[in-house]
């Protein structure tokens, strides 16, 4: 009861904070950056190690520049995520612009379902809101449940505000099978790390062997969907645009691991373009394939 009460108080406080205008939240973000980077050094060793392993050709000064830009963006991401609690649909559309919405309409008119590979790049929570506002399709957002059930409930409330169906990772196949007669637009975060005993496939990603989930590929092939990638660009502080890039029109015609390698390669290109917007503080490389050094 005490924990539940505290959770409600915290969420209510965050809700009130979310009502503040963006300009004020970014003032808070400037302070959060100082705390995260300069005072407590939040996961700086993890970030630094990830960067030097991913960009062996960059010198110490280049790595330091990316590191600082990352922490500045991480602070912005924190306040922007809080803002997602109460942001309006019109504001989401204004700040996360679709550059080619006609592509989604094209596949809808062809009676084809879509699976979209997305990543922890840019503001993925705002992107989830934006995908929820696509007028066609039944929207499905696949998520990994949090260990804290109360926090998980709150996140579901936030992510489902604009009508998307939130489906836990382990229930996705069953849900898509139940909806096989409907046109669905399913969003999966493709750059999460599987636990070691579930790591079925490794590929070269950012200059190191990387374990990958095969969820996008398995579901796309099983239901023969179109496979797309969401290419996100940060235009300026608080403003983004995304382009839906078709990777495969017919998933069943692909070779094993072709879909996985393709969307992973596209993510790598996006990160190389502007690395500061990816989630470097995540422990992405927890283990290596057997026999690797």
UniProtKB/TrEMBL annotation:
InterPro entries: LipA_acyltrans. The keyword Cell membrane applies. The chain crosses the membrane at residues 12-36. It comes from the Bacteria. GO terms for biological process: glycolipid biosynthetic process. Keywords: Acyltransferase, Cell inner membrane, Cell membrane, Membrane, Transferase, Transmembrane, Transmembrane helix. GO terms for molecular function: acyltransferase activity. CDD domains: LPLAT_LABLAT-like. Its main location: membrane. It is found in: Cell inner membrane. It holds the Pfam family Lip_A_acyltrans. One of its GO terms (cellular component) is plasma membrane. PANTHER family: LIPID A BIOSYNTHESIS LAUROYL ACYLTRANSFERASE (PTHR30606), PHOSPHATIDYLINOSITOL MANNOSIDE ACYLTRANSFERASE (PTHR30606:SF10). This is Lipid A biosynthesis acyltransferase. It comes from Mucilaginibacter paludis DSM 18603.
